[in-house]
Design brief:
The protein has 355 residues and is α+β, with helices and mostly antiparallel strands. The protein has six helices and 16 strands. Strands 5, 6, 7, 8, 9, 13, 14, 15 and 16 form a nine-stranded mixed sheet that branches.
């Protein structure tokens, strides 16, 4: 359907009293404020049937009609990237992000992201491209696989954002870590800040970290192997790289982690220790040597639970470990039969778990 195209909107209670351009920008997130200004000033917007100007403020229960005479001017390029969809309705989408994919465009990566794929998916649901835009309320690191929720429109985006900020969302991760964790369960509560002395986004739980903020991660051991542990981690806060930093700080880095090593140290290179793709050495804790898990850290967002922003119902979603992690776990189990069980002996790097 070509432009122009008329859209009818109701004013929601939380937008009562805002200017018409701000109201429209909430609903059309692929349009810049400048583009909306132009259409309002051109007489393309009516409230309850009356043409309004740029200074007009909308109120709850009013009806706004806009005649879209121009296409979006900051539209993400839609790319037909395959999506693994766990759930979808008119307000949100729950997907499984694969390892190696960035969530949204950043820096030199301006294509192939999860957002580009979701934009294409959303464009198949609207008469014009760009009427919906994927909203990002939480992120997974590029090399972390797992469950993500992506709101489609402004109200679900706002309410889910509040849910994440107020820690009303439950997240669980599976991780393969170096060494044998002795405790069956525990809590890591070291504050996390920016690593000092570098222009970097790397984080640290050391006392000299800049701008530290409280952070808390619960964990439980799922399975022990001769020199590794499969762990279920539940972050209670949402600090950048929290699980990776916390596990490394207690002496059990996530295997394959590109950056975080024991005691707040940063790895110089994932390949410094003579790594050979596909090789396996359960006694070597400096990195992961497990068949297919060779290109990323062994961390997977396995479950996500939250209250639906519109239906007000608790929803839970689960994704099994990605193929590479599943293969690594199988490899560890097979290898364990040929080696002595070290789970009852002291780990060479004793955990410093608090609480």
């Amino acid at each position: 359907m070509p432009f122009p195209f008329v859209v009818q909107l109701d004013v929601e209670p939380y937008l009562d009293g805002v200017r018409i351009d701000s109201f429209l920008r909430k609903h059309f997130r692929n349009y810049t404020r400048y583009r909306m200004h132009r259409m309002v000033r051109a007489g393309m917007v009516r409230v309850n049937g009356v043409q309004v100007g740029i200074e007009h403020k909308v109120h709850v229960a009013q009806q706004v009609a806009i005649r879209l005479v121009e296409p979006p001017d900051k539209l993400l390029r839609a790319e037909p990237i395959p999506l693994k969809v766990l759930y979808e309705d008119a307000w949100l989408l729950v997907v499984v992000k694969p390892a190696g994919q960035i969530v949204h465009p950043a820096g030199l990566t301006q294509s192939g992201t999860l957002c580009h794929g979701i934009q294409h998916h959303l464009d198949q649901q609207t008469p014009l491209p760009g009427l919906l835009r994927p909203g990002i309320v939480h992120r997974l690191d590029r090399m972390t696989s797992g469950v993500m929720v992506v709101p489609k429109e402004h109200l679900s985006h706002r309410l889910l954002s509040i849910g994440f900020q107020e820690q009303q969302v439950a997240k669980t991760y599976l991780a393969i870590v170096e060494g044998v964790i002795e405790k069956d369960a525990g809590t890591i509560d070291f504050s996390i800040g920016i690593r000092p002395g570098e222009d970097t986004i790397l984080m640290s739980a050391r006392p000299d970290a800049r701008n530290p903020r409280s952070a808390e991660t619960n964990f439980e051991v799922v399975e022990r192997f001769p020199a590794h542990t499969l762990v279920r981690a539940k972050p209670l806060t949402g600090r950048l790289h929290q699980i990776r930093v916390h596990l490394a700080t207690i002496g059990h880095p996530v295997v394959g982690d590109e950056f975080y090593d024991r005691d707040g140290m940063i790895r110089k290179s994932r390949f410094d220790d003579g790594f050979a793709a596909g090789s396996f050495s359960a006694g070597n804790e400096s990195g992961l040597r497990l068949g297919l898990v060779t290109e990323r850290h062994a961390l997977h967002a396995s479950t996500l639970a939250f209250t639906h922003p519109i239906f007000d119902e608790w929803m839970e979603f689960e994704a099994p470990p990605a193929d590479d992690m599943a293969a690594a776990i199988c490899c560890l189990r097979e290898n364990r039969h040929d080696r002595p069980n070290l789970s009852e002996s002291a780990s060479p790097h004793r955990s410093l778990v608090t609480k």
